Amino acid sequence: MASLVDLQNRVALVTGAGRGLGAAIVRQLAKQGAEIAFTYKSDSETAAALEKEIHALGRRCISLLGCVSDYNRAQQIVDETCSKLGGLHILVCNAGVASSAPIVRMSENDWDEVMAVSLKGAFNYIRAAAPLLIQQAYGKIICVGSINGLRGRMGTASYNTAKAGLLGLVKTAAS
What residues pair up with 11 in beta bridges, in sequence order? Predict the structure, then answer.
């Protein structure tokens, strides 16, 4: 088994981490020694339970309410993470939603929500965090994608398009 990376003295911010994959990412980063900030959209009880779980591991942790599609809130969350935890070293853009329907039955609202959360959300957080990461000459940005960003599949046009766009965003941000 490969050894884990030591993340002592590192601060990680994970979007969309109130439950599911995001919560698992938070747990793993904390087990590896990172201090944690994470965002959630609505379930404050679940977020508080995860925050308590991370504190029990001996890590500092803050949970922050906010929708990733709001750039101003993304900037506030990056700033609050730095203020309360002493910096930012790792950004994990995990927030995402899916809406399934054939294109001819997909509503514009459903399409827009998937794009706003799954693609624009990553853009907002990369844009908010990048100046700090550049200034400190250190940082890691991880965006959670999907194989569906590389292929088409009936009924998942918005999700697949958002994940394909995320791939382009990551390639551009890395260049």
Answer: 35
How far is residue 54 from each of residues 51, 105, 153, measured CA to CA in Å? 5, 42, 38
CA distance 135 to 40: 27
Q: What are the counts of helices (DSSP H) followed by strands (DSSP E) for the chain?
A: 6, 5
Which H or E element spans position 132? Answer: helix 121-135
H helices of 57-101, where?
A: 71-85
Instruction: Give the C-alpha separation, 17 to 26, whole Å.
Output: 7
List the catalytic residue out of 40, 125, 138, 159. Answer: 159
pLDDT of residue 1: 47
Residue 57 sits at the vertex; the CA angle it makes with 56 and 62, to the nearest 5 degrees, is: 75
- Contacts of residue 142, defined as CB under 8 A and 6 or more positions apart, other chains included, come to 90, 91, 92, 93
0.85 cut: is pTM over it?
A: yes
- 159 is a catalytic site residue: yes
CB count, 10 Å around CB of 97?
18
Q: At what angle do helices 157-174 and 121-135 cross, to 10 degrees?
A: 10
Q: Please say if the pLDDT value at position 27 is more than 80.
A: yes
